[in-house]
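Researcher: Please translate sequence to structure tokens.
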Amino acid sequence: MSVILTLINHPGRLARLRAAARDSHTIIACDSWEQMFSTSDRLLVHAAVLDLESAVTPTFDAIRRFKRLNPGVALIAYTTYSLESVHHIFDAGRYGFEALVIADMDDGPSAFSRAIERASARGVASLVKSGLAPASDPVAADALLTAITRAHERLTPAVLAREMGIGARRLSRALSASGYPSANKVIMWGRLIVAAALMDGTRHSTDRIALTLSFPSGSAFRNNCRRYLAVTPSQIRAGGGAKLVFGMLNDHIAGRRPLQRFKPAYDAATPVLDTTGE
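Model: Translation complete:
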């Protein structure tokens, strides 16, 4: 189960976060930055939810340091909406926050849960960006990163191109020139990378991941895992999660291994039984 650290002094807000996390995340409530740092040193942390009213003390220096030491941790700002908080919200955008939750407005269980998953997707995009093979056209890399950060949406090639501010033909040319898959496949790879990240260190079921990422069903998600990766969700979870999936795609982009030549990580003659509830 993934770990979410919090620095929240308001009991009601902490209760709302716990309701959103339910049985998908372990919430560790910290009462100081010292505890935040010591906990992140000994545990693999998925995300950190920071109440800006208590986390900024009196500057953003601690937040900047925490992000520098934990680049893979998704930061979520939690605050009230008031004239006094506007400056903090503006400043927070410069320090690596991936999501913003406004108290009493969008901190219900479902909305909060979606914010956690979106923040995680943006955190995954940051890690992918640092390890992505160089592209002859930077538009191609931007397309993959956009597909990852918007993996929860129903993207199409036309919508992806519009989100990037370019035409569909321009996008297609950039992907082809850089050795990337087609726009349709880039969108699916983005979803699979985020799905793999949700599996990594969590107990999310395949059906829940499918619902979160707008797959028609858990079966459709499993079929895409086999089609694109030649592995099952259980094997993705055991094989490294997002690192495994991104490594496959990056090898193809770098010209080291064509995707169509990937061999299953299991004996094709032996039935694979997914016994994890996935």
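Researcher: Any highlights?
Model: The domain at 132-261 is CATH 1.10.10.60 (Arc Repressor Mutant, subunit A).
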